[in-house]
Every structure is written in C-alpha cells, then in structure tokens.
Design a protein that fits this description.
Pfam families: 2OG-FeII_Oxy_2
Bound molecules: 2-oxoglutaric acid
Number of domains: 1
CATH superfamily: Alpha-ketoglutarate-dependent dioxygenase AlkB-like
Keywords: Dioxygenase, Oxidoreductase
CATH architecture: Sandwich
Largest sheet: 7 strands, mixed
Order of helices and strands: EHEEEEHEEEEEEHEE
Strand order of the largest sheet: 1-11-8-13-6-4-5
CATH topology: Jelly Rolls
Distance between the termini: 39 Å
Structural class: alpha+beta
Protein name: Alkylated DNA repair dioxygenase AlkB
Number of strands: 13
Shape: globular
GO molecular function: dioxygenase activity
Mean pLDDT: 93
C-alpha cells in the first residue's frame, strides 16, 4: 500500500477526501463493468507543435445540452449508462450541485498519468465543484499551490471520493504522476457541472 505524506483530513482549503464512499466490492464490480462497457478513446493533443496521444484512455459522458467543446479534444460524447446516472443523482443530492457531465479516465498501469493542471475552464464557472471517484489501483494524487509551489500528496484509494470546490482550482494545480512499477489499472470518474 502507498504511504500518503498528507493527512487526508488536513488537505488545503477546497479539497475534501472521503476514503470509503463506495464499498470495496461495489468499487471492484463497478471497475470491471466500466472497463468492459465504456467506449474508451485515446485522443491526441498538440504539445510544442507535435501531436501526441494522451497517456491514458478517456470517455466523456454528458447530458445532451452540454457544450461539446468543453471536452477540449475530439472526444465523442456518450450518453449516461444507468449505473453512472444513478451515481450522478446521488452526488447531486449530496453536494447540491447539478452535475451534467463526467470525464472518465482509465490509467492502464503506472505508466499512464495526468500532468499538472487546474480544472479552471470558463465553462465550469468561477468556483467549480468536482467530485472525483477512484476505482481500482491506488494512485498518488499531488496538489501544488500556484504561488508558493508548496506540494502535498494523498493516496486515492479504491472507492474514495475527493471533492474539489471553492478556490481549489484558482489556487492549486493537481496531477497524477507516473508510478513506473505499478502494474494495475485505475478508473477515475470526475463529475462536473458545465454551464
Ligand atoms: O485521476 C485523477 O484522480 C485526476 C483526474 C483529473 O485531474 C482530472 O480529470 O482533471
């Protein structure tokens, strides 16, 4: 098991972590269902003028009226599978946020990753709330203050829910670094409300 170097109860303002939002069995069942049944894509991005496929697979699920441009790359927009629609409704009721889109990431092993970024696209509004559910392998999640560069890491366990809200996207970057030795896959569900 990974050793976190931040106490998940003492995260910066705007980050809160619930370790067992889903049971171990439910998390495992959902992981295998989604791995088999979602239509995974590997979009390309341009970095310094060169085209690259992103280092993970993705699926973008959204209500019909959600502006497609949000997904940022050429992702096909998928309708909500029942199991994810039910989860979206529970999170909407719990957090009082009208989630209407979901970006799903599949990290096939520790070589797949996500670089430093903030989820601060204008379509997400000024202080977006993002609910991030983890399924499968544990991964280190890093948070870095944009001005002081101070960093914290937490380990996201299978079945956990990390909520980012308030000024978290304005003040911090986050990333999911490579873990070269990790052989196991992880799925991450990020529920978003797009205006
Ligand atoms: O996989 C994760 O936990 C991070 C996902 C993320 O940062 C994002 O989708 O913006």
């Amino acid at each position: 098991m990974q050793q976190p170097n931040a106490n998940p109860n003492h995260l910066p303002n705007g980050f809160s972590y619930q370790a067992q939002a889903l049971s171990a069995q439910k998390s495992l069942d959902l992981f295998y269902y989604l791995e088999q049944n979602l239509h995974w894509q590997q979009p390309e991005i341009t970095v310094y003028g060169k085209r690259h496929v992103i280092p993970r697979l993705q699926c973008f699920i959204a209500d019909e009226n959600v502006n497609y441009a949000y997904s940022g790359s050429k992702l096909i927009v998928e309708p909500w599978p029942d199991v994810l629609d039910a989860m979206r409704k529970r999170l909407t009721a719990q957090l009082q946020i009208p989630f209407n889109a979901l970006l799903v990431n599949l990290y096939r092993d520790g070589h797949d990753c996500m670089g430093w970024h903030s989820d601060d696209e204008p379509e997400l509004g000024k202080q977006p709330t993002i609910a991030s559910i983890s399924l499968g392998a544990e991964r280190v999640f890093k948070i870095k203050h944009k001005h002081t560069n101070e960093q914290q890491s937490i380990v996201l366990q299978s079945g956990s829910c990390l909520v980012m809200n308030g000024t978290s996207q304005r003040d911090y970057l986050h990333s999911l670094p490579k873990q070269q030795k990790l052989k196991h896959p992880r799925i991450n569900l990020t529920f978003r409300s797009i205006m």
